[in-house]
Structures are given as C-alpha cells and as structure tokens.
Amino acid sequence: MPRLKILPDADVLEIAHRLIHRHGPDALTFAMLSEACGLSAATLVQRFGSKAALIRGALLQAWDGLDAKTAALAKDTPKTPEGAIALLVALSGSYGGIDAYAQGLLVLREDFRDPVLRARGAAWKKTLASALDDCFAGTASAAPGIGMLMAAQWQGLLTLWGFDPVDDVGRAVEDGLRRFVSALVRGTSAVARR
Asked: Which domains, and CATH codes, for the chain?
C-alpha cells in the first residue's frame, strides 16, 4: 500500500520558492528544505530527483502564479492608459523592498539559464504586452507594439529604482509610467499635427 503524502508537492514547492528568494538558488539544499517543511531530505530527493528539478519545479509554479495574477489583472483593469499603469503598479507590488528585489534578480538568473523557464518568461512577456496593447486600443497613442514598449519601460523603472530605492516601488513605478505615457501622448499628438 503506497504511503500518503503528508505535504502536497505544491506546498513543498512554495516553501522551496520562499527559500530560494530568501537565500538564493545556489544556497537551497534538500537539507534546508527538509528543515523548513518537515519532510525528510530523502523523501524530498525521492519526490523531486535533483536540486535542479526542485528549483525548476518551484519556479514553474511561481510562473503559474504570475500568469494567473496577470490574467486576473488584465481582465479587471480598465482598457485605458490609466488601466495599463494600474496593471503594472499592481504587478510591481510582488517585488517587495530592495533586499527582496535583489534576491529576485538571482531567481531571474535561473529563469534565463533554464530554457524551459526562459520559454515561460517569453510567453508571459507576450501575454503582458498584449494586455497592455488592449489598454491603448482606440486611443491616439495606440502605436503598434506600445505594450512591449511600456513593459520594457516598466522593467527599466524597476531596475533603476533598485539603485536608489528611496521611494516605495509602487509609487516610483506609477510616477515613472505616468511620465512615460504623458510623453508618449504628447509625442503622438506632435506626429499627428505634422
């Protein structure tokens, strides 16, 4: 008769994800995870096979969460430039303070190094850009590719915020995106007048 799992894999992966963010992917061990979740290291090795598979599983589950959050925000956000800003500000809330953001960059390195995780990031990028495009549809500033341009601006704002995190990340992103959209709208108006 097979033994019942005391803790579902999804819960173990969530704990692993928190440890990865707190200590970095290289520091994660089965012993560390064992201490955090209460399952033996041998059980964890049996479930996940290798540290690389464990990290990939934790990050794929995190991508699932980000996909769901992005879809929910895109569905509920007004289809306006203000809605695009609100969507990105809401996504920025998960970055936390500067220490959490810095640790998140180590996790991003894992996403870049693993082709499966990189593909998830690429798919999310397209979904996000499409949701942002929808927010500009029907406006004078609805240039092709505006969603990708705004997503790139958002990511740049997050990176630059990391060098000088005097303000709350949400406020910094909102302020920067408002200035970006304002410049974009002025630029579109100037082109239309020519």
From this structure: 9-193 (1.10.357.10)
Q: What is the pLDDT of residue 191?
A: 39
DSSP string, the chain: -PPPPSS-HHHHHHHHHHHHHHH-GGG--HHHHHHHHSS-HHHHHHHH-SHHHHHHHHHHHHHHHHHHHHHHHHHHS-SSHHHHHHHHHHHHGGG-SHHHHHHHHHHHHHHHHSHHHHHHHHHHHHHHHHHHHHHHTTSTT--TTHHHHHHHHHHHHHHHHHHS--S-HHHHHHHHHHHHHHHHHHHHHHHHH-
Q: Read off the pLDDT of residues 80-95 as tens digits, 9 standing for 90 and up.
A: 999 999 999 999 876 6
Determine contact, residues 44/34, Cβ cutoff 8 Å.
yes
What's the pLDDT at 167? Answer: 80
Element (H, E) at 186: helix 169-193
Both structure tokens of 151 = 């997503």
Judged against a pLDDT cut of 90, whether residue 187 lies above it is answered with no
| CA–CA dist 117, 119 (Å, integer) | 5
